[in-house]
């Protein structure tokens, strides 16, 4: 094996990760600002109204990125929790702890925008449709993770127990998804990436892709900041944190 | 295998000596099924429509409520630590424990379900399918509940938390279980949903013991 694992080990060091996160966060922050402004302009002015839904479809520019991030967030949560369990890496648990409230917020945002979109299009704020239901269950999985982690007096055991739960959830997520899909579906199928090309007109798709990039950058910036906080809290007794505070 | 036998016999003896505790989930199951006709309306058509879902949801809750105590007494008196140190893998022990618990808490619900379904005007011809679906489903739910019980065993108040953790994971079982019962009631072939219930049980049997044992080890560390 010629692959160097030093970068991996370096990531496990809290002071290194803290500084790296501090340096990367502003980049992602500015990138997200640029992308979201451009995406909003493209989505709200440049893209033509939909022939069926009129201007109502424009909520897609918030809804789809949030829904995508809610699922990405859970995957990130479960993968970092798994790394934390297997390699006993403190930083991985810190990432899992930092991503959980963020993922839950985006899940909530996806649910709210979805139900606001559903009212004029389907005639109801809520329908027991497959994707809505699985998104709701995903929200409760985030809540379960947070609640279990907080329930332990010893944070070390809490994060390990929550990590096991996250992994069990990762196995269960596809099962839940397909079970509700076969159960009932009112939601439209996937339109952004269908086989070779896309079903959406380019003038509508480009702003959407820009918005997805912007939301992802925003997610990354928030995540890095949250990880920094998490590291400070965990390492509050360490010498490097004291030095850092004295410098500041 | 001798150790496993001894473990199962011990758990069964404990369950048998505590007769009263075995009755609680059964009472809960009966009462919960009875609440629906009282709360909605006793119209036979309506009851027949909701019967599969009500019986399944009641069995789900009745099964999970008792899971809280699955490892509790062993954890509190320290025997769980001894069991974890035993040469018999904790995974096998977890499976055996879950199974004996199911014999006391899940199987009675399966046996009782035709009676409760009958009270809800569920057609008699579809009873075998309902009971068979519940047999597969309650076993899967026991495995899921055991993961939750192992995760929360070191916490003081875990009953509600256990439900919050496990109920989202239990959704597929509820969906396919109620679906198979509803299809059987309409005279359709429920084998598709039953196969899926069986597949989930197999998945649970293979993976859940590792999750239960891992969670128990974490709980013992704290």
Describe this structure in words.
- The complex is a heterodimer of chains A (248) and B (222).
- Chain A is mainly α.
- In chain A, 78% of the residues lie in helices and 0% in strands.
- Chain B is mainly alpha-helical.
- Chain B has helices at residues 2-17, 19-39, 44-67, 72-76, 79-85, 90-105, 107-119, 127-152, 159-169, 171-185, 191-221.
- Classes of the chains: A mainly alpha (248), B mainly alpha (222).
- At the A-B interface, helix 5 and helix 6 of A face helix 8, helix 9, helix 10 and helix 11 of B.
Task: Describe what is shown at a glance.
The complex is a heterodimer of chains A (248) and B (222). Chain A contains 8 helices and no strands. Chain A has helices at residues 6-11, 14-46, 60-87, 90-122, 130-151, 155-183, 202-234, 239-247.
**Main beta-sheet annotation of chain A:** none
H/E topology pattern of chain A: HHHHHHHH
For the record, give the distance between the C-alpha atoms at the N and C termini of chain B, rounded to a whole number: 30 Å
What is the chain-wise order of helices and strands of chain B?
HHHHHHHHHHH
By DSSP (H or I, 4+ residues per run), the number of helices of chain A equals 8
Task: Please state the average pLDDT score of chain B.
Answer: 90
Note the topology:
The complex is a heterodimer of chains A (248) and B (222).
Chain A: H1 6-11, H2 14-46, H3 60-87, H4 90-122, H5 130-151, H6 155-183, H7 202-234, H8 239-247
Helix pairs in contact in A: 2-7, 3-4, 3-6, 3-7, 4-5, 4-7, 5-6
Chain B: H1 2-17, H2 19-39, H3 44-67, H4 72-76, H5 79-85, H6 90-105, H7 107-119, H8 127-152, H9 159-169, H10 171-185, H11 191-221
Helix pairs in contact in B: 1-6, 2-3, 2-7, 3-7, 3-8, 3-9, 3-10, 6-8, 6-11, 7-8, 8-9, 8-10, 8-11, 10-11
């Amino acid at each position: 094996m010629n692959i160097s694992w030093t970068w991996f080990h370096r990531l496990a060091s809290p002071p290194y990760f803290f500084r790296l996160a501090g340096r990367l966060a502003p980049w992602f922050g500015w990138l997200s600002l640029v992308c979201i402004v451009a995406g909003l302009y493209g989505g709200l002015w440049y893209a033509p109204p939909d022939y069926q839904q009129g201007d109502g479809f424009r909520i897609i520019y918030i809804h789809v990125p949030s829904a995508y991030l809610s699922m990405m967030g859970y995957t990130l949560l479960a993968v970092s929790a798994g790394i934390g369990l297997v390699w006993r890496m403190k930083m991985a648990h810190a990432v899992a702890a930092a991503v959980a409230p963020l993922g839950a917020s985006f899940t909530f945002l996806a649910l709210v925008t979805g139900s606001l979109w559903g009212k004029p299009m389907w005639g109801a704020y809520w329908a027991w449709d497959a994707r809505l239901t699985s998104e709701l269950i995903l929200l409760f999985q985030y809540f379960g993770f947070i609640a279990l982690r907080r329930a332990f007096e010893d944070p070390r055991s809490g994060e390990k127990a929550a990590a096991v739960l996250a992994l069990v959830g990762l196995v269960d997520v596809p099962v839940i998804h397909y079970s509700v899909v076969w159960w009932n579906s009112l939601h439209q199928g996937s339109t952004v990436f269908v086989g070779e090309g896309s079903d959406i007109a380019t003038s509508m798709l480009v702003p959407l892709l820009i918005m997805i990039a912007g939301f992802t950058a925003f997610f990354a910036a928030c995540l890095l900041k949250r990880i920094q906080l998490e590291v400070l809290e965990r390492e509050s007794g360490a010498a490097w944190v004291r030095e850092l505070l004295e410098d500041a | 295998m001798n150790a496993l036998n001894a473990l199962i016999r011990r758990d069964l003896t404990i369950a048998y000596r505590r007769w009263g505790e075995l009755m609680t989930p059964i009472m809960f199951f009966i009462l919960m099924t009875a609440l629906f006709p009282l709360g909605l309306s006793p119209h036979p058509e309506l009851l027949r429509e909701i019967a599969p879902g009500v019986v399944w949801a009641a069995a789900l809750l009745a099964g999970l409520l008792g899971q809280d105590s699955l490892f509790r007494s062993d954890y509190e008196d320290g025997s769980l630590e001894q069991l974890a140190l035993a040469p018999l893998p904790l995974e096998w022990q977890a499976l055996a424990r879950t199974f004996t618990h199911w014999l006391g808490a899940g199987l009675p619900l399966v046996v009782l379900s035709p009676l409760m379904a009958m009270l809800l005007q569920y057609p008699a011809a579809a009873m075998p399918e309902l009971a068979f679906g519940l047999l597969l489903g309650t076993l899967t739910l026991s495995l899921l509940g055991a993961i939750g019980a192992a995760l929360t065993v070191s916490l003081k108040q875990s009953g509600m938390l256990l439900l919050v953790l496990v109920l989202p994971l239990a959704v597929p079982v509820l969906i396919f279980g109620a679906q198979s019962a509803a299809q059987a009631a309409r005279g359709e072939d429920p084998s598709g949903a039953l196969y899926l219930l069986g597949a989930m049980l197999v998945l649970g049997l293979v993976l859940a013991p590792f999750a239960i044992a891992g969670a128990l080890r974490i709980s013992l560390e704290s």
